[in-house]
Write a structure and sequence with these properties.
The chain is an alpha/beta fold and 486 residues long. Helices cover 39% and strands 23% of the residues. Helix 4 (98-118) runs parallel beside helix 5. NADP nicotinamide-adenine-dinucleotide phosphate binds at residues 149-154, 176, 178-179, 208-210, 213-214, 228-230, 233, 236-237, 252-255, 286, 387, 389, 415, 456, 460.
Amino acid sequence: MLGKVVPCIIGGEPVYPKNGQTIRDINPADVNDIIAEFPKLGREEASRAIELAEEAQRGWAAVPSPERGRILVKAANLMEAEFDELAKILTREEGKTLNESRAEVSRAISIFRFYGIMGYRLRGEFTESTEQNTYLFTLREPLGVISIITPWNFPIAIPSWKIAPALVCGNAVVFKPASYTPLIAYKIVEALQKAGLPPGVLNLVTGSGAEIGDEMVENKRVSGVSFTGSYEVGERIAQKANAKKNTRVQLELGGKNPAIVLDDADIDRAVAMIIRAAFGLSGQACTATSRAIVHDKVYDEFTRKLIERIRRIKVGNGLQDGVEMGPVVGENEMNKILQYVNIGISEGAKLLYGGKRLTSEDYIRGYFIEPTVFSEVTPDMRIAQEEIFGPVLALMRASSFDEAIEIANKTEYGLTASIYTSDIRKAFEFIKNVQAGVVKVNKPTTGLEIHVPFGGFKKSSNEMFKEQGEAALDFYTKIKTVYLSF
Ligand code: NAP
Ligand code: MG
């Protein structure tokens, strides 16, 4: 059975597959459910999208920014009118539970509203001059054409937090969503079109990242690339962009996020938050907790309570009521996670819970994995160092606060980090010493508010530009300084 063919959108026009070349959009909870098919475009079509974006950008930049913002707010309203349908598409396409999808769709709507209103607040700076009758001030100008390349795990929120600031600043965009999640991407573009975005200002291209991705980075008309995804692909993009001058690059990459549990913590709260952060979205959040670093004195109590709670996690199709954890997104991802389980066992970590694919009648048509916990994990093990991107939590022991921080920092990544403690001094020392771009106290490593900056340290980012909040505007604009004498 084939899915309904949904087009790309280039220059405001639908573009259908050529010679039947498509990518298939499949429900990871049930592989017989083919949701849609999208064109598998090549470099040539990506290049044409970039050309049309460049043409459209000049007109778009001339539109006053409050008017650009008005279109974003209208798109948010249109998305809100379709709220239930969008949440359902997201669950069918990506696998997360309906509650998780609702939260994500609602976040995307807020993001469009936030940057819509930013249309009234695209400000420069005014400074007194050292000379008489002279004004000094700065203006923000758009970069031009921006390539936006996004992953499947937050397939409506991440594109929204890139597309909305790019557009309100007066840029045109060529947007390539992950091949697992093109339909929700199409819905974003559709809402903006219906809201009155001029043709060519936002173009949707689908197809293999390896193929059209290169065009989106190397094309001379592109002045900025905003990418979220794996470290490996991020590295490749950075190299290609550096080889070509004048391309600004923003990279948000993987994580290996720690949660420290001290002996003075509220253990029940720590267990609840760590379960949510480790197994929510089936562990497929860049901000997921993948290492719980627990003080010796409470290690056994924490472990016992954690396992008690994990036994009750209901795994299943995210569309069903009461399901707390959906499938992982695809077969390759599932196999990679199961491989890491074997690696953990062979490294000598103790498999405390889970570790297997679920294969009974209800599960066999999807990519379901048990929530998995390893105990007695040591910092040098691969399962303590490498991003697994699935429902696998490593428990690590620390005999002191200082040792806990040392373990937390002992990875190449630095996206988010949490501590659970009731000691305010330790909380502040943690804030000061932990190497992560987002730091939380008595809160899960996952979960971001839309109006503050987000981005990682170390291998989790290229550390040049933040996303989200007002800080996002810095990536999407360049500053012009004006000296005016009268
Ligand atoms: P991925 O394999 O790196 O893919 C991300 C995007 O890049 C997809 O659209 C993909 O297209 C495209 N792509 C693949 N090869 C490319 C190439 N050579 N040139 C240009 N683009 C290319 O990552 P993923 O598996 O989708 O997502 C999981 C990763 O994202 C994890 O590492 C996770 O930590 C990270 N992530 C980070 C953040 C953050 O904010 N730090 C947030 C979410 C996720 P195809 O789908 O067509 O292959
Ligand atoms: Mg991938």
